[in-house]
Amino acid sequence: MEDRNCSFSYEPTIENLSKAIFVVNKHAKTASNPKFLYLLKKKALLKLVSEGKAQKKGLHFSQNPKYSQQQSDVLVCAGKYYFHMPPSKEDFEQLPHLGTLNSTYRNPKTHLSLTKAKTLLQSYVGIKENQNQEKKQTAPKKQHAYSKPVFKRLGESYF
């Protein structure tokens, strides 16, 4: 467990990365705009799996399925932590289905600021938060100039 007074190391160890993913995921659940946080979590988990530092354990039925339809999530183990992420087509073919989520298991508590967690994951994955915001700002909304309405007498043409 991380002590609040202890300095946090930005080394991308499995322990530090899994703590950072846990903190980002926890904050994403209550954030007003969680898209970037979930993207950061997903990219970090995929990179950990590709490097062999995390393992996909199987599929779980989702606790909050979209449109009230049955849906599955991939259970990923990274260090002492377990996370869920959206499955790919290959996951359904390769991973066993574990059924419903065991609600008695909890990830270890972590005391780490969101800022430190985001900094570590952004440097590990290689993306920045403002990259997503720049895409939105480059396409400004088209606003038409106001023009007064034109009234013609009955029978007159507008052209």
Q: Quick gist of this model?
A:
The protein is α+β, with helices and mostly antiparallel strands and 159 residues long. Helices cover 37% and strands 12% of the residues.
Structural class call reads alpha+beta
Oligomer: single chain
**Helices and strands, in N-to-C order?**
HHEEEHHH
> What's the count of strands?
3
Please report which band the strand proportion falls in: under 5%, 5-15%, 15-25%, 25-35%, 35-45% or over 45%: 5-15%
Taking pLDDT < 50 over at least 5 consecutive residues as the criterion, the unreliable ranges are 1-5
Distance between the termini: 76 Å
Query: Mind describing the biggest β-sheet?
Result: 3 strands, antiparallel
Commentary on this structure:
With 159 residues, this protein is an alpha+beta fold. Helices cover 37% and strands 12% of the residues. It has a 3-stranded antiparallel beta sheet. The radius of gyration is 23 Å and the shape is elongated. The N and C termini lie far apart (76 Å).
